[in-house]
Amino acid sequence: MSAPVTKAERPDGGSRLRRVVQAGYALLALSLVLALLGEWLAFPTWYAVIPALATPLLHRSRANALRTSRLSAHVSWQSNTVLGTLAAVAASMLVLGPLLFLGLPVLAWALALIGLWMAWRIARGVHALLTDQPLVTRSGRDE
Question: What pLDDT, in 10s, does the model give residues 37-58?
Fold first, then answer.
């Protein structure tokens, strides 16, 4: 087991890039919370898409530095989370939305599973960031 890397030894440029990645995870978590509580907070649930779409825009502010750092895996992890979530929600709504009686309860379950998947991706990414571990996928490579 290797010793933890100190802030002075980090090759990723230090805490500024790390804060950008942390802000990306915070935006994803905000998006998830807004999706869960949107109706209760009396605003349309689709507003939850705005923080999720702001995550890749945040990465654009430091694109060159993030691309060449160890944190690039987190950037692609967050981007894949946004794209995967949006694609899954769109596909679920297109397929299950028109089916009135059977489709709506199944759609609710599908959206709940998508929310759980997104929460798991956020938690796994934050854990890897806080413990300075690489994000390794099932195929055995960094994402």
Answer: 877 777 777 788 888 888 888 8
Q: How many CB atoms lie within 10 A of CB 46?
A: 11
Q: What is the token pair recorded at 50?
A: 């705005």
Residues 6+ positions from 104 with CB-CB distance below 8 Å: 96, 97
CA distance 44 to 35: 9
What pLDDT score was predicted for residue 57? 83
Query: How confident is the model at residue 12, as a pLDDT?
Result: 42
Task: Say if CB 65 and CB 13 are below 8 A apart.
Answer: yes
CA pair distance 19, 138, nearest whole angstrom: 27
CB atoms inside a 10 Å sphere around CB 74? 26
CA angle (111 as vertex; 40, 20 as ends), nearest 5: 80
Segments of the chain scoring below 70 in pLDDT: 1-14, 100-101, 103, 136-143
User: In a 3-state reduction of DSSP, which class is residue 136?
Assistant: strand
Nearest to 81 by CA among 137, 13, 139, 28: 28
